[in-house]
Write a structure and sequence with these properties.
With 267 residues, the chain is an alpha/beta fold. 42% of the residues lie in helices and 15% in strands. The protein has helices at residues 17-28, 40-50, 64-78, 107-133, 156-178, 199-202, 208-215, 227-238; strands at 8-11, 32-37, 54-58, 83-86, 137-143, 182-190, 249-252. α5 (156-178) links the parallel β5 (137-143) and β6. α1 (17-28) crosses α8, α3 packs parallel to α4 and α4 (107-133) packs parallel to α5 (156-178). The structure holds NADP nicotinamide-adenine-dinucleotide phosphate.
Amino acid sequence: MSRLAGRIALITGAARGIGAAIARAFIDEGAFVHLSDIDDAGGRARAAELGERASFRHLDVREESQWREVIAGILTEQGRLDILVNNAGITGFENGDFVQDPEHASLEAWHAVHRTNLDGVFLGCKHAIRAMRGHGSGAIVNISSRSGLVGIPGAAAYASSKAAVRNHTKTVALYCAEQGLDIRCNSVHPGAILTPMWEPVLGDGPERQARMREFVRDTPMRRFGRPEEVAAAVVMLASDEAAYMTGAEINIDGGILAGSVAAPEPA
Ligand code: NAP
């Protein structure tokens, strides 16, 4: 397959989970992939597994100076950036802080989630537009969430940040079109995808299987999605197959946003 042959891509949060699966799918489609993450050991290991068309760069998406440095390095080495996937994201549960509801969440936790999930996407789009402007074309894919389309009482900051990513995607898409640039920007909205992100809430005890069933109880397809199933849609959005798609959103959620599968019971 060569839908991304010769393209230069940068993926954030690519050391594991969905980002790592996107990196693998991009390589399989012929791209050169710069994996980036704050997990240097994990990111280097993933890049090494992917072979000579992959490299790793440290990039904390919250830090504008690091965005400047990483993108300047790619432009110096390869002369262009064709694809950016803003994938890095956190739930806020990582450090064991499960109090994320709108009444009790701390302002500190609220800001921390927005800094990574929203500021990171803003900075990525900003510097990618500047890099892609040189050759006038490119594709930006922002990983939002099903949680950006509905309210999530137990994860207020996460839901708010992902909703803002959805909206900013459309702003970027319109801005680029207005500027006469063929830089497309679209968002992807995964439902429950089984990655290490879920470990703090699933745990590894005897309750794990029951918790997994509970989390997908309302998903019509009754299972977690796989990272590869998200990566497949990202490949399409990054490729020429999506040449007329910008400001659009794709849900990959086992049907949960389509509505309820519950059938009315006879009285
Ligand atoms: P994951 O397994 O937790 O992987 C996320 C990666 O991002 C980790 O390697 C993490 O590094 C890295 N990261 C965290 N903060 C970062 C920062 N400031 N700068 C750069 N990298 C950073 O998550 P995932 O499940 O693959 O999720 C990927 C994206 O999909 C996220 O945006 C997430 O919100 C979204 N999403 C996931 C699901 C799901 O069910 N899994 C559903 C909807 C949307 P450390 O491990 O060192 O923190």
